[in-house]
Amino acid sequence: MNTICGVVLAGGKSSRLGQDKAKLRFKGQDLLQRSVALVQEFCPVTYVVGRDAREHELNVPWMLDDIPGIGPMGGILTALKRLKRPCLVLSCDLPLLSRDILARLIEVRNRIGYQKLMTTYLQGETGFIEALVAIYEYKCVEFLQRSFKRGCYKLSQAIESENRHHIPYSEAERKYFLNINYPRDIQLLKVLDSKG
């Protein structure tokens, strides 16, 4: 029951971007393919949540959100309830995320012994948590359902800070967490990638 399942969230409508972010190509793959390949390095089984993975030529299990229209919380709840295991959750729009970032996340989660419901990264200067680069324990379900019932879909409020383990990251590491939401983010990606 402690085996971590990989979960890549790909159910967003990409309305702010104006095109399907999961199908954006970067270094020879679309963003969903890249995210799945990264998670597969760490998890024996990786699922796509939110769309049919076959649309991206991926031979992995997939599921649609049980509760569509509430953002990432719906996909995470769906995965946890169906899999009944801890889940390494990654959004599909993080093109610069590195293997080292995920390795550190898993190592810290395993070392602290599942004492918290959620292990995630925290940006030291801003206090922003990376809720979509995180490990959610199965026990999160009751917290997420409670938050959903009161109409709050924000993950940082559903899982309060005392139930999260935070891994601080520096300003220099911020580029790894760039997610593609707006057209300007595509331009920023090109700039950051050119700098290595």
Notes on the protein architecture:
Helix content is 32%, strand content 20%. A hairpin with a 5-residue loop joins strand 7 (118-123) and strand 8 (129-136). The chain has helices at residues 31-40, 72-83, 99-112, 140-149, 155-158, 183-194, and strands spanning 5-9, 25-26, 29-30, 46-49, 62-63, 87-91, 118-123, 129-136, 164-169. It has a single domain, classed as Spore Coat Polysaccharide Biosynthesis Protein SpsA, Chain A (Alpha-Beta Complex). A seven-stranded mixed β-sheet has the order 5-4-1-6-8-7-9, sandwiched between helices. Strands 2-3 form a two-stranded antiparallel sheet. The protein has 196 residues and is α/β, with parallel strands linked by helices. The model has no long low-confidence stretch (mean pLDDT 90).
Question: Any low-confidence stretches, pLDDT <50, length ≥5?
Answer: none
Order of helices and strands: EEEHEEHEHEEHHEH
Question: What is the C-alpha radius of gyration, as a whole number of Å?
Answer: 16 Å
How would the global form be characterised? globular
Question: What structural class should be given to the helix and strand makeup?
Answer: alpha/beta
* Arrangement of strands in the largest sheet: 5-4-1-6-8-7-9
Give me the number of helical elements: 6
Rounded average pLDDT: 90
Through-space gap between termini: 39 Å
Note the main sheet: 7 strands, mixed
**What is the CATH C level class, in words?**
Alpha Beta
CATH topology: Spore Coat Polysaccharide Biosynthesis Protein SpsA, Chain A
Number of domains as seen in the coordinates: 1
